[in-house]
From TrEMBL:
Annotated coiled-coil segments of the chain: none
Domain named Endoribonuclease L-PSP/chorismate mutase-like: residues: 6-144
The name this protein goes by in its record: RidA family protein
Signal sequence segment: none
InterPro entries: Endoribo_LPSP/chorism_mut-like, RutC-like_sf
The species this protein was found in: Paracraurococcus lichenis
Organism domain of life: Bacteria
Length: 155
C-alpha cells in the first residue's frame, strides 16, 4: 500500500527512479540519528544528464529550474532508499544546498534553485520548508547544469 507521500508524488505525476550509484569515493546518503544527509544529485533522467551546460549561457533559467526540480526527484529516490522504501518516515526537509553552473555575471541562482524548493513544499507541505544555500559554480560533474544536496529529518 502506497503511503501519503507516494500518493502525493503520483498526484504530481512523479515516478521516482532507481537511486543513482555513486561515481566516485563517497556514499549516496548517510544516516545519523534522525537525519538523512544525501549527497549531491545531478539532473539524471534514465541514466543520462537531462540538463547540461551553464545556466544563463545556453541553458535558460526555466530549464535550470526544471533541472533543480529533477535533482530533488533524485534526492527523494535516495531518501526512499535510506528509509527502507517508506517516504512517510520523512518529518521535515531540513536543508537543501544548490550548486548552479553559470557564468560569473549570472545572478538568478535563487530563481533556479526554487525548482527544487518549490517541489519540496509541493510534496511535503509545510514540512517541506527548509533552510537553503545556493551558489554559482564554474562547472559541475558531467557538465550538469545544477546539483542539489539535502538533509532530511526522519522518524
Amino acid at each position: 500500500m502506497a503511503g501519503r507521500i507516494e500518493a502525493r508524488l503520483k498526484e504530481l505525476g512523479i515516478t521516482l527512479p532507481q537511486p543513482a550509484a555513486p561515481v566516485a569515493n563517497y556514499i549516496p546518503f548517510n544516516v545519523t540519528g534522525n537525519l538523512v544527509v544525501v549527497s549531491g544529485q545531478i539532473p539524471l533522467q534514465e541514466g543520462k544528464i537531462a540538463y547540461a551546460g551553464k545556466v544563463g549561457a545556453g541553458v535558460s533559467v526555466e530549464d535550470g529550474k526544471a533541472a533543480a526540480r529533477l535533482c530533488f526527484v533524485n534526492l527523494l529516490a535516495q531518501v526512499k532508499a535510506a528509509c527502507g522504501g517508506d517516504l512517510d518516515r520523512v518529518t521535515r526537509v531540513v536543508r537543501l544546498g544548490g550548486f548552479i553552473a553559470a557564468p560569473a555575471e549570472f545572478t538568478q541562482h535563487a530563481v533556479v534553485m526554487n525548482g527544487a524548493s518549490d517541489l519540496a513544499v509541493e510534496v511535503f507541505g509545510e514540512a517541506g520548508r527548509h533552510a537553503r544555500t545556493t551558489i554559482g559554480v564554474p562547472s559541475l560533474p558531467g557538465d550538469a547544469a545544477v546539483e542539489v544536496e539535502g538533509m532530511f529529518e526522519v522518524g
